[in-house]
């Protein structure tokens, strides 16, 4: 769920917010190599993700083009269930359930163009670029113990989270009805960070009231 409020009289300023709860299925893969010992451990688990975002922006218009900066603050909490790795003789882990938190500040800008076709449909395209800075720890943590070793002591593993400090580029192309209350959009995005890169694609529908 997301929303944007831009009443007249604020000279192009607007506030925005969103909230999301998601159920995700995850797969893990880990390689263990020591001397002549080599094993690959695999696991699967379910996680819940809860997100909340609030932001402020300002737009200027030049004909059919709208552009301007924005700033936002986003909180993300992820909780995952316990699971056991498979296919790793002597190296498989039993991972306990846990959670991770992230609080990110984002500063960016966007530019978009809109045109009304002869039949009244509105065609839009928008491109945005931003830098996201993580304000909390940039590590994921998980507690585990060796699954096949009786009495194995538990330990905590750390992994740097991808995309928490990242450059983010998003683009959308879509159409809307005459009243601009129903929208259908194709989306694409890129995240670049020192821990790796990711690309995403999607389809989005909106109802504005």
Mind sketching the topology for me?
Elements lengths: L1 E4 L7 E22 L2 E22 L1 E3 L2 E16 L2 E2 L8 E3 L2 E19 L5 E13 L4 E8 L8 E6 L5 E11 L5 E12 L2 E12 L2
Antiparallel strand pairs: 1-2, 2-3, 3-5, 4-5, 5-8, 6-7, 7-10, 8-9, 9-12, 10-11, 12-13, 13-14
Commentary on this structure:
By secondary structure, this protein is an all-beta fold. Helix content is 0%, strand content 73%. Strands 1, 2, 3, 4, 5, 8, 9, 12, 13 and 14 form a 10-stranded antiparallel β-sheet that branches. A hairpin with an 8-residue loop joins strand 6 and strand 7 (93-95).
List keywords for this structure.
209 residues; mainly beta; 10-stranded antiparallel sheet; 4-stranded antiparallel sheet; 14 strands; elongated
- Share of helix, binned: under 10%
What is the CA–CA distance across the termini? 13 Å
Largest β sheet strand count, sense and barrel closure: 10 strands, antiparallel
State the order of secondary-structure elements, H for helix, E for strand.
EEEEEEEEEEEEEE
Structural class: mainly beta
Q: Specify the overall morphology.
A: elongated
Q: Helix count, per DSSP?
A: 0
Mean pLDDT: 84
Rg result: 22 Å
Annotation, overall tally of beta strands: 14
Summary?
This protein is mainly β and 209 residues long. It has strands at residues 2-5, 13-34, 37-58, 60-62, 65-80, 83-84, 93-95, 98-116, 122-134, 139-146, 155-160, 166-176, 182-193, 196-207.
